[in-house]
Amino acid sequence: MQHQRPPAYEQVIQPGEYLGMLGDGQLGRMFCHAAQAMGYHVVALGLEADGPTGQVAEQYITADYADEAALEKMASMIRSVTTEFENVPAMSLKQLSYTTRTAPAASSVAVVQDRLVEKSFISAQGVPVAAHAAIRNIEDLDTVDAALFPGILKATRFGYDGKGQAVVNSLQEAKQAFSELGGVECILEAKLPLAYEVSVILARNHQEDIAIYPVGVNKHINGILSSTTVYPELVPQDIVLEAQAHAKKLAIGLNYFGVMCVEFFVLDESKLPDGDGQPRLVANEIAPRPHNSGHYTINATTCSQFEQQVRVMAGLPLGDTSLLAPTIMLNILGDSWFVDGSEMATEPDWASVLALPGVSLHLYGKAEARKGRKMGHVNIVHHDIDTLYQTAQRVSDTLHLGAELNRG
Ligand code: ADP
Ligand code: MG
C-alpha cells in the first residue's frame, strides 16, 4: 500500500510493521537486532545482499542508494526510514520523506556530509572547532595562514577511519598531499595538541525530547577506533557537561531526529601557547547515525543506541541512557585473523575471550576477514574497574588487538 503522506509525528508505528534501513553494514545489522527484539520487521536497501545487514533484515532490496525505483519500492513497504552511513545521498532521504517519516532528515545529513559545511555549522552554533581553511584548489594553499601548520589536510567528503586525510607539516607537504588526495576539495585544519578524545551519543525524537549517553573516551590505532572506555570518574565533570551541552546544541541546531554522535578533542593545556584563549574542548565531527563509540550501550545501558534509533523512528518515548556499570568496548579488526605475519586466516580464540568475566562478543557476520576491516567488537562490563581493565587487557592480548589500556 502506498501512503500519501508521512505519519504525523505523534503517531506511533506499532510492532509488526516494517521499518526501513538504508545501508548494508554492521550498524544496519545491530539496528535490525534492536528492531526485531521489539517486534518490528526491517526492510533494508543496499549494495550487498549478503552483508551484515542483509543477513538479518527480513527483506532486502539490492540497489544503489540513488535508485529511484528501488527507493519507491521501499517506500511502499514502510512508514519510517533511517540510515547507517552519512554518505547516503541526501536526495534519497528527501525522496523517501514525501511518504515516510525520515530520521534523520535529508537536510541534517547534508550538513555533515561535507567537512567544510559541517565546521561552519558547528562554529555558527557557538561550539569551538579547530582553526581551518577551505582548500578548493592548489593555489588556495599559498594564501593559508602559516599558523595552520602543522596541520591535517582532509578531503571534505567521503573520508572515514582516518582515510582521505594526511598530516602536513609544511606548505610543501600540503601541496603534495593535496595532489595525492586527487585534487578534490579539502579542508586544512590546524593539528591540535590532544590530551584525549571523547564522544557523545544522543537520541532526539520528533517530540523534541533528547536522551544523552555518558561521555566515552576513544582511542584510535592507525586512524581506526580501537577502544571506548566509559565510567563516571574517567572524564572530569566539567568536560562531560560541556560536551553534552555542545552535542545537544548541535542536535537542536541541525533539527536532528534520530541517533547522532559528536566527536570532541580535549586539548592538552600544557601544550597550548600561553594566553592563547583556546577552549579546552573542541568539536571534531558529527556522525548522523549510531556510532562505533556507542557500541558499549548494547551491554552497559538499558536502552542501546540502536534501540533509541528504533524508538525515534516508531514515535516512541526515548529509553534510559544511564550507565549500569563501567565498560570498555574493544574493536576487532580482520588483523586478528592474521597474527604473527601469517597470510592464512585463522579463527581467533573466542572461547578464551568468552571465559573472561563480563565479556560479550559481537561479530558482524562478514564472510572474509581482511586487515583493517571491522569484524566485530567485544564489550566488557564490570563493576570493579581494576577487573574491567585487567579483563580488557586479556581480551586485547588474546585477540592481538594491541589496544592501549592504561588507566588514567
Ligand atoms: P574520520 O572521519 O576519519 O574519523 P576525523 O576528522 O575524526 O576523521 O580524524 C581522525 C582522527 O585524526 C581523529 O580521531 C584524531 O585522532 C585525528 N585528528 C583529526 N583532526 C585533528 C586535528 N585537527 N588535530 C589533531 N588531531 C586530529
Ligand atoms: Mg572521526
UniProtKB/TrEMBL annotation:
Functional pathway: Purine metabolism; IMP biosynthesis via de novo pathway; 5-amino-1-(5-phospho-D-ribosyl)imidazole-4-carboxylate from 5-amino-1-(5-phospho-D-ribosyl)imidazole (N5-CAIR route): step 1/2
Cellular component per GO, a single term: cytosol
Name under which the protein is recorded: N5-carboxyaminoimidazole ribonucleotide synthase
Lyase recorded as keyword: no
Gene, per the UniProt record: purK
Catalytic reaction annotation: 5-amino-1-(5-phospho-beta-D-ribosyl)imidazole + hydrogencarbonate + ATP = 5-carboxyamino-1-(5-phospho-D-ribosyl)imidazole + ADP + phosphate + 2 H(+)
Summary of the function given for this chain in its UniProt record: Catalyzes the ATP-dependent conversion of 5-aminoimidazole ribonucleotide (AIR) and HCO(3)- to N5-carboxyaminoimidazole ribonucleotide (N5-CAIR).
Residue ranges occupied by any ATP-grasp domain in the UniProt entry: 119-314
Complex and partners: Homodimer.
Enzymatic class: ligase
Gene3D superfamilies named in the record: 3.40.50.20, ATP-grasp fold, A domain (3.30.1490.20), ATP-grasp fold, B domain (3.30.470.20)
One Gene Ontology term from the biological process aspect of the record: 'de novo' IMP biosynthetic process
Coiled coil residues, start to end: none
Keyword Transcription: no
One Gene Ontology term of the molecular function aspect: phosphoribosylaminoimidazole carboxylase activity
UniProt EC number: 6.3.4.18
Binding site for ATP: 115, 154, 159-165, 189-192, 197, 220, 284-285
Native source species: Oligella ureolytica
Family affiliation: Belongs to the PurK/PurT family.
Keyword set, alphabetical order: ATP-binding, Ligase, Nucleotide-binding, Purine biosynthesis
Segment forming the signal sequence: none
Pfam families recorded: ATP-grasp, PurK_C, RS_preATP-grasp-like
Domain of life: Bacteria
